Amino acid sequence: MTGFLGHVFRNPASVCQSLTFWRGSEQLIHIDYPYVRQQSPLSYLAASWIPLEDVHPDFGPLGYYPGAHKVDRSGFFDWGGGAIVQREQAKRSPAEFSRYLRERISSLGIERQVFCPKRGDGLLWHGNLPHEGTAVNNPALTRKSYVTHYTAERALPDWMRNLDDLGRPIGVFENGAYCYRSKWFDPDPVLPSWTSPRRSGLGQLTSALRAVKRRLSGG
Ligand SMILES: O=C(O)CCC(=O)C(=O)O
């Protein structure tokens, strides 16, 4: 995914934000760029949606509107005073933005697609694609998923870059993409299991038992 985005941006893809969802969000129809707006140019924005379990229609899957990302179809919503992004002082609300999009999309006759992927699938969307969280028919069900918003490395604001004293980037840099570690995170994050003697002892025992089991079964 990040390799593909690198080609689209003609610059390495870089994570600017990520979110985890435990259940269907039922988020109103929206487009991301009015909310994810630190990158410059603003239009350098895409997102990936990764299911962490198979998604059933009753879980409140993601819905999206193919082709509605084209600016002649989506138009530009005025948040007040000609602003196309939502700032603290915006005069209009996300609910109004959602109504505006719904009206435009229905006047164009664009039908919603519902994304019911299997774990391991993924969807990439353009930063101008209208999407929403559809209704959760069974609130007892989870819909674990992971959303990442990407921009191009050169479009990242400086404050999102994390460099050490020698100017080397700090974070995860794989598959040609950048994921800077946020500056406000603990500089040495560790899992509880790495520090607790009891838990790490149990972990070693479990691994040893697994190795014995593999050897006995000829694996
Ligand atoms: O997963 C969802 O229900 C909505 C996700 C979304 O709209 C977003 O992260 O921009």
Largest sheet features: 4 strands, antiparallel
Given the helix and strand composition, which structural class is it?
alpha+beta
Q: What's the total number of strands?
A: 9
Oligomer: single chain
Give an overview in words.
The chain has five helices and nine strands, in the order H-E-E-E-H-H-E-E-E-E-E-E-H-H. The protein has 219 residues and is of the alpha+beta class. The chain has two domains: 2-180, Jelly Rolls (Sandwich), CATH 2.60.120; 189-219. The structure holds 2-oxoglutaric acid.
List keywords for this structure.
alpha+beta, four-stranded antiparallel beta sheet, Jelly Rolls, 2 domains, 5 helices, binds 2-oxoglutaric acid
Describe the SSE topology.
Layout: H1 2-9, E1 13-21, E2 46-51, E3 62-64, H2 71-74, H3 94-108, E4 113-115, E5 123-126, E6 131-133, E7 145-152, E8 171-174, E9 177-180, H4 192-195, H5 197-216
Antiparallel strand pairs: 1-7, 2-5, 2-7, 3-4, 3-6, 8-9
The chain binds 2-oxoglutaric acid.
Residues 19, 21, 24-25, 27, 32, 62, 131, 133, 145, 147 line the site of 2-oxoglutaric acid.
How would you concisely characterize the structure shown here?
With 219 residues, the protein is an alpha+beta fold. The chain has helices at residues 2-9, 71-74, 94-108, 192-195, 197-216, and strands at residues 13-21, 46-51, 62-64, 113-115, 123-126, 131-133, 145-152, 171-174, 177-180.
